[in-house]
Amino acid sequence: MFPIIPAASAADSGNQEGLFGFGYDQYSTYGVTAVTNLVSDTGVVATDTAGVGTARHSQGACEYGGDKGIFAYGYTNQVVSMSNLVSNAGVVATDVTGVGQSRYQTAGCSYGEDKGIFGYGHRSGAGGLATWALTNLVSNVGVVGTDVTGVGTARRQLAACEYGDDKGIFGFGTTGSRVGMTNLVSNAGVVATDVTAVGTAKQGPAACRYGSDKGIFGYGDDGSATADTNLVSNVGVISSDVTGVGSARSNLAATQYGGDKGIFGFGYLSGMVSMTNLVSNAGVVATDVTGVGTIRYNPAACSFN
Prior knowledge:
The protein is mostly beta strands. The protein is built from one helix and 18 strands.
């Protein structure tokens, strides 16, 4: 008899499907929506699924539990901290009471194979605007933890993704001026100090995992809309700029799909858009795919299995 070889876990092989959700669409109450769009295991984006939970934009999203996802934080007509869990069938649940500092323009990624982290962000504060470096860990059952004192430069409009199977990285953003530094996240969820920027400083990019253990940051605003990308190696090293493919835009989202590929979608370029760009398992970005679903910017995205 041949030995039985266990199937690869979602954490080992990468999740098969993705989900874009929420965002600013201009036409809804307060200009925000809760609609979602599923991404198949071949990178096909589905039409809108009616929104569940509080409509908002500029929240973060990440995976947890190996095969599920979570959206958290954001902006309605004010900053909020609630979260919405995503099942391993891509079904979004109703609001969970928020934990931690209310904020928006934050980012999230998974770490430790089955947990997640939200970090950084922005809120309207007395006397002006405030940026944060604090983080909130997400357990392997989707429970968001209390605030952890921030490490690294406080900023907003950044992105985050996984690398190396069980670690994460936050990168880019703005402090009021565009920045390009990164911060690595260990497999225990510990955020490291700033790593000197590689590539052009920008705000409003997106990021996702590809190739099972690498990542990619792409698009954003570096003074004008850009489509340039920066690859992340399996040890968390950021590459210099790769000339962009597809429509330059900012304030979009990205997620993995198909186990080892990625997809960028939606965003803003002289108006809201819904086109997508697939990322191969070698980190190569493809040309625009005609958009499906409500045009919007500042959505978030995560994968599920």
